């Protein structure tokens, strides 16, 4: 049996463990610093309601990834969902992504149309502000994007944000159906405890060490010291921030964290029928509210709202700065063949979601099987 070490027991670590166990021939040790698997995707209960740390609904464009997860934790499709943004200066809720019909009901619609007719495009955009203004003009940028991103990234100036997985076409204004991502599969587990069963299924047969941290890493030699013992592995799959594997020798990688406040309200539903999330693009400290029962379908005379406030608490959102991505790349260059760095922190990539964790784990196992040399890390989405 070959020996694999998986570092971190969030979705990516569990998915990687599952892929290796399914491939056969691997003895897998998964090391998780916390007391449970799943991290923020694990369902807990508050006020009789199931909840996760922020919304964690399953969104993918990859049928194979959907089928994989659906076979293990049956999923209910929920493609009807809409997201709304509250724009205080219009005292109105508008769909997000920005929808043409909403522009028609804005008090300054004529001015916005003039701006839209003059947008310059994004070919020369160097930062988030230029990208959005180049796509939709200054007024729509101010209404939907400016304050939201400042609080999301805890910055005073969005021009600091100089990379964002931008499309060369810029941001299109939506027309037709309002459902937020009608080109993707949107789903959520049927089970009252959400994805929880997945973490046990995925790690069955592996050695799972909870509440455990590795004492020290020697990644170039695929070795670690664990509970005082030096261990060598044939394969290491890390899902934690790459700087932690190298004693931050190139400096600490930056992240934004989150505080989550849970509020029970004495009413069956608060949000309109198909609305799952509300975004707030003004001076309030919070970015997003979620009404959990919209996707959990939990039955109760009360409802649970989650409120997210950006903070430095936790390493949830890798910074979308080129300088930080460059720093991450230097860490990846220190990783030899047989070391993978996947998942959100592991890839140091904002916007890397549950489906991407699964896809990366599948790709990793495939490469290992084929003796592929596409090491050390996937920096881009697979498609
Ligand atoms: C608030 C929020 C809401 C989100 N909503 C959605 C959504 O609706 N849909 C969606 O698809 N995606 C969503 N995402 C993204 C998605 O949930 C994540 O991309 C995915 O869960 C990341 O999994 P991961 O395993 O890469 O990382 P994590 O979930 O962060 O897991 C990493 C694990 O490593 C452990 N760890 C850390 N340091 C060490 C160490 N030194 N040693 C051992 N273990 C360690 C941690 O305890 C943790 O369990 C959301 C993310 C956030 C933050």
UniProtKB/TrEMBL annotation:
Residues 144-350 form the UDP-galactopyranose mutase C-terminal domain. Signal peptide: none annotated. GO terms for molecular function: UDP-galactopyranose mutase activity. Keywords: Isomerase. Its EC number is 5.4.99.9. It comes from the Bacteria. Gene3D superfamilies: FAD/NAD(P)-binding domain. The keyword Oxidoreductase does not apply. It is an enzyme of class 5 (isomerase). Pfam families: GLF, NAD_binding_8. PANTHER family: UDP-GALACTOPYRANOSE MUTASE (PTHR21197). This is UDP-galactopyranose mutase.
């Amino acid at each position: 049996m070959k020996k694999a070490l998986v570092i971190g027991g969030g979705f990516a670590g569990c998915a990687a463990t599952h892929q290796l166990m399914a491939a056969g021939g691997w003895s897998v040790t998964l090391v998780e610093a916390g007391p449970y698997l799943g991290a923020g995707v694990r369902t807990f209960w508050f006020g009789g309601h199931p909840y996760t740390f922020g919304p964690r609904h399953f969104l993918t464009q990859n049928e194979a990834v959907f089928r994989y997860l659906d076979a293990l934790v049956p999923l209910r499709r929920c493609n009807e969902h809409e997201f709304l943004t509250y724009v205080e200066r219009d005292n109105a809720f508008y769909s997000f992504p920005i929808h043409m019909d909403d522009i028609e009901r804005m008090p300054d619609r004529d001015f916005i149309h003039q701006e839209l007719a003059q947008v310059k495009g994004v070919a020369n955009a160097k930062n988030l502000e230029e990208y959005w203004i180049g796509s939709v003009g200054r007024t729509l940028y101010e209404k939907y994007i400016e304050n939201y991103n400042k609080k999301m990234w805890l910055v005073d100036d969005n021009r600091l944000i100089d990379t964002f997985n931008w499309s060369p076409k810029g941001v299109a204004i939506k027309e037709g159906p309002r459902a937020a991502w009608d080109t993707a599969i949107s789903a959520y587990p049927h089970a009252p405890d959400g994805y929880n069963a997945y973490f046990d299924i995925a790690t069955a047969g592996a050695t799972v060490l909870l509440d455990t941290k590795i004492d020290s890493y020697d990644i170039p030699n695929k070795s670690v010291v664990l509970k005082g013992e030096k261990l060598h592995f044939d394969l290491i799959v890390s899902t934690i921030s790459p700087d932690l594997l190298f004693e931050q020798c190139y400096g600490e990688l930056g992240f934004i964290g989150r505080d989550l406040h849970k509020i029970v309200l004495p009413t069956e539903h608060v949000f309109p029928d198909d609305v799952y999330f509300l975004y707030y693009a003004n001076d309030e400290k919070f970015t997003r509210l979620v009404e959990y029962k919209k996707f959990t379908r939990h039955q109760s005379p009360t409802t649970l709202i989650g409120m997210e406030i950006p903070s430095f608490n936790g390493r949830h959102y890798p910074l979308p700065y080129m300088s930080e991505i460059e720093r991450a790349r230097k860490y990846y260059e220190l990783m030899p063949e047989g070391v993978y760095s996947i998942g959100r922190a592991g890839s140091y990539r904002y916007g890397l979601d549950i489906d991407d964790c699964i896809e990366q784990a599948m790709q990793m196992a495939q490469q290992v099987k084929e003796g592929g040399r596409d090491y050390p890390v996937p920096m881009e989405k697979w498609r």
